[in-house]
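U., I forgot to send this yesterday:
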Amino acid sequence: MPIQFRSEKLDARFVTPDGSQTETRPVEVRFDPLLGTTSRIAEGVKLQTADAEAVKKFQLPDASCPFCAERIEKVTPCIDPEVSEQSRIRVGETVLFPNLVPYSQYAAVAAFTTRHWLAVNEFTPPLIADNLAACMRYVQDVYAFDPRARYCAWNINYLFPSGGSLPHPHAQVFLDPFPTTMMRLQFEAGERYWRENGTNFWEDLVITERARNERFAWDIGSTAWMTAFAPTGFNEVRAVVRGRETMLQLDDADAAAVATGTSRVLQWYRALGYDSFNLALFSGPLEGSPSFRVNLVMVTRTAMLPYYRSDAMHLERLHWEAAVDRAPEIAAAELRTFSG
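Result:
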């Protein structure tokens, strides 16, 4: 079955508080053309926009930040020498090192710069391209060392509302023998589409969206950018890296195209008034699969506010994968002590 953009429109009715009239508000249910999952477009749902005063103190130098120039060499861990000849991978201003709080077997952090603060519109294409290139190099090293680590992604949580724990701009690399939920759903649905249609879903999506010209934004090099028909988050933008099945196949030109598009989207987010976002770039299994294409998703989060941090980051919002700090068995042992 070819790509379908299914939408159902509903009317929600209520009587106004003063009882004078009945009002109707629209709700639209949209079905994701790949996964079949649903999302809803409801008028009046808003995110908090940016407040310059709320971020002032986070822009100042922080003597405790581990990613700043004075401390990054002293407090960040080094890559296992069996995995890479480099203890930390450097490309441009990016410095990549293992994550002290790993969410995957080969988790890494890639600081965009040793400068402590970047506004959303200061993520320039060169900074983004260098960060992605460092992560691509790490993926190559890990996969050469351990081919079981065949599932990977490049992720960003920017500022506390996105689930980030530090304001210092950084990306995170996911490399693991097991896919996240969203990875698995994409792989399975892409394989099913390939079997049923004999074509690649992501390539067909680009052709279809470009022809319809309702959500398509730009072609940049090997990448095609569009808004999501059935969004999973606010102001969602998606990109497809055409002809590329895995992160191992990306070259410098692909990284530059991804970086240019990402920077443009962030300029737009800043113009809308948002300063926090999540990003995930999904790779196919690293051995390659013709049914998959490297694809990216970005969403805005509520603006930075004092004393606020979300407990949902890229894993929960974009990978549909929960990450918690303790085993349920430990929690149950504690819970049983509250028996009354």
